[in-house]
Amino acid sequence: MGGPHKIRLMMKSERELAQRRFRKQKNQNLLAKPGIHQCIIVLDHLKPTYNIGKIFRSAESFGASQIHLVGIDYFDPAPGMGAFKWVPAVFHTTFLSCYTQLINDGYTPFILEPGKGSSITQARLPEKSAFIFGHEEFGLSFEPGLFPQLERLTIPQFGKSQSLNVSIAASIILYEYTRQHAKSPVLTAENPEIDNPQTDI
After folding, report:
1. How far is CA 178 from CA 128, 171, 174, 190, in A?
2. Bridging pattern class, strands 151-154 and 89-92
3. Burial 119-134 (b: 16+ CB within 10 A, else e)
4. d(CA 88, CA 31)
């Protein structure tokens, strides 16, 4: 068996394992309840590997209300350490349906762009804020100018690359949102300890 063929088989096997983990936790996600904060994360066509699971983990930790996934059929929940089961997920085929739902529900949608828009350290974030993150390489799947109620934010950066990993950027904006709107954390039977991801495979 040649090297490239073996690698393809390994990748296929890993993808199938990720899909099984996704299906199992998606069924459990149907019982998930919104966190204590009214912020929403929107993930627009992200890769189905590491970042989505990590963002679910951060969203659960900061008490986000929901995560909306646009154009994402499945993802590997393992990096989220079980958080996919606890944060309500809403799936959309197109960004238009996601945007329409957010506006109808009274949310202010934000996109984050380096060097554009208001700095998150100076902006006053509405309690009902939705933060939109695009694909790791290609960015947003839509033209922002077609959606007039979108607002722009930027995370101050001081290095030369002006680039942050999407899961890191999501964690930063969730931290800033909760700094402005934080409620006291409550430990209840409805907020159990996160499972060990090894038990979810």
Report:
1. 12, 11, 6, 20
2. unpaired
3. ebeebebbeebbbbbb
4. 8
Chosen CATH of 38-183 out of 1.10.20.140, 2.60.120.280, 1.20.1640.10, 3.40.1280.10: 3.40.1280.10
Tokens of 139: 């960015």
Strands (E), 57-107: 66-70, 89-92
User: For 45-75, how does the pLDDT look when each residue is reduced to its tens digit (9 = 90+)?
Assistant: 999 988 999 999 999 999 999 999 999 999 9
Q: Where are the beta strands (DSSP E) in 17-150?
A: 40-44, 66-70, 89-92, 108-112, 118-119, 129-133
Location of structure tokens 């964690």: 171
Cα gap 14→9, rounded to integer Å: 9
For 21-35, what is each residue's pLDDT tens digit?
999 999 999 999 999
How far is Cα 12 from Cα 3, in angstroms, rounded to an integer? 14
What does the pLDDT average to over 140-148? 95
What is the C-alpha separation between 83 and 4, in angstroms, rounded?
34
Let me know: does 47 contact 79? Beta carbons within 8 Å. no
Q: Is residue 144 over pLDDT 90? A: yes
